[in-house]
Design a protein that fits this description.
alpha/beta; Rossmann fold; 7-stranded mixed sheet; two-stranded antiparallel sheet; globular
Length: 200
């Protein structure tokens, strides 16, 4: 297994890399199409804007590589904004929607409030493998959420007022965290290691 963290200018690569080191996951950091092509698991980090991250991965020619690797069955793991760009469309900085990677059927929507701080994972549609994570608290920091077209891809939700936020999404080899596992202490490390190493 070869794990790559895709680096873009706004991402929090160092904290994610330190987290992976602490759980014994060997990895490398890259930002080029060539280096990314060697990975069997690609992690898209979680800091930045929807348009900003997409524009950058298009400029460095990794946009198409991510889609190709996903279609080949490699694991793609998105964290926060990294999860949101897996969607079909979204917008954060402009009124016009931008095309995402299209690996998850859904659109990124704006929330009225920021979702910052600790929140619990809730859900019914998950296997017993995930019991250890139900009702545990994880760290969130976002103002947009992914409105899905297929609710079967959701393992866990979290709630902010009346908004039901998909917090952990699994669609075969495409995985997404709305929260930051690398900032979520013990259970954050556990769930990140579990999803990288588990054959889902």
């Amino acid at each position: 297994m070869s794990v790559a963290i895709l680096k873009y200018s706004s991402s929090n690569v160092s904290s994610l890399s330190n987290c992976l080191k602490s759980i014994g996951v060997k990895h490398y950091i890259c930002h080029s199409k060539k280096d990314l092509s060697y990975a069997s698991t690609i992690i898209l980090p979680g800091v930045g804007t929807y348009e900003g991250v997409l524009n950058e991965i298009k400029k460095n020619n990794t946009y198409e590589t991510i889609i190709e690797k996903a279609n080949q069955g490699n694991k793609i793991i998105g964290i926060c904004i990294g999860m949101q760009i897996l969607a079909e469309t979204g917008n954060e900085l402009s009124l016009k929607k931008s095309k995402g990677l299209g690996l998850i059927k859904g659109d990124v929507k704006k929330m009225n409030n920021f979702h910052i701080g600790w929140n619990k994972l809730q859900g019914k549609n998950f296997s017993k493998k995930f019991n250890q994570f139900k009702n545990q608290s994880f760290y969130f920091n976002h103002s947009n959420y992914l409105k899905l077209k297929n609710s079967k891809t959701v393992v866990f939700y979290s709630y902010l007022n009346d908004i039901k936020i998909p917090s952990l999404i699994i669609n075969k080899n495409i995985l997404g965290f709305q929260f930051h596992p690398e900032k979520s202490q013990v259970y954050g490390k556990k769930i990140l290691k579990f999803l990288i190493k588990e054959n889902l």
